[in-house]
Predict the 3D structure of the following.
Amino acid sequence: MGPKPHILLFGVGSVGAIHLLQLQRAGCTVTAVCRSNYEFVKEKGFTLTSVRFGNVTYHPDHIVRSVAECPKDTVYDYVMVTAKCFPGSKPSLADLIRPALIGRPETAIVLAQNGIEIEKAIADEFPENPILSGVIYLPTTQTSPGVIDYPEMLNLLELGTYPANAPAPHKAAASKLVDLMNQGGGEARLYDDIQIARWTKLLINTSWNPICALSLCSDGDFLLTSEPFAFELVWGIMIEIVTLAKEVGIPGVDEEAARVRLQIATRRAKEGTGRDPSMLQDVKQARLFEVEAIVGNTVRLARKHAVSMPRLETVYALAKGRYEALARDRLH
């Protein structure tokens, strides 16, 4: 038995809280960077209501408000970012996590975040560190500070290196984290090229996330609002993603992949079990949402490659308007 892996979790909301539990169950020492929920979690820990893990209360091994508060002599095996992705924000993500990485080229940085083209900015800032890109399927909500509702069994982390042809030690870091997440009771899969998984999730993220945030409907409920127009809007956006994926050389993101993912929501519509995507959850709680990482990066890449995206560009402009309105409201 070697030393216990030491993990720094940055941004421990609903997804981060469940990953915290899994990593502790796998024998890791976990430091949680809790920002908005720091006071509550420090006093009472996390309270989880879960089909998969049961109803449990648990605490991080260590808790801090920022990475700058972490002990200077601690070497982390992984800095795992489960905060939402806001490209161009100030201070940048790189600046926020930098104190844990100074002089630590062996520490792997895990971007367990939504969107596409989010890795390069971190890789440019930390060229020697392993960069691991993660795609998460984990339907969970933080209903109040430190209180997590996780009503489904789905718990999947798809992981791979950035870039795909990273050196062997970086590949080994990815493989080890996959093992830890599986040991902790979740499901994790290792990919040679994680961008295939990232783009496959983009089929869901670029369609359902902004549409639900704008309409204030769950995915299933939205499909029932204006048949067949609602269905055709979602399907049309998915096909725009398929077209872009083909143009930029991402395999496996085809009409069949889109059809499979749209069937999830059509089933929910029939059963009355619609889910609120993350952007809708954020809008309902007056939080900023990931419009740029998920939608903005996509439409800009499409224009770069001369791929027409009239539906997604329209949805992006409207979602960006809602984002800016929320941002103004938060200043007052």
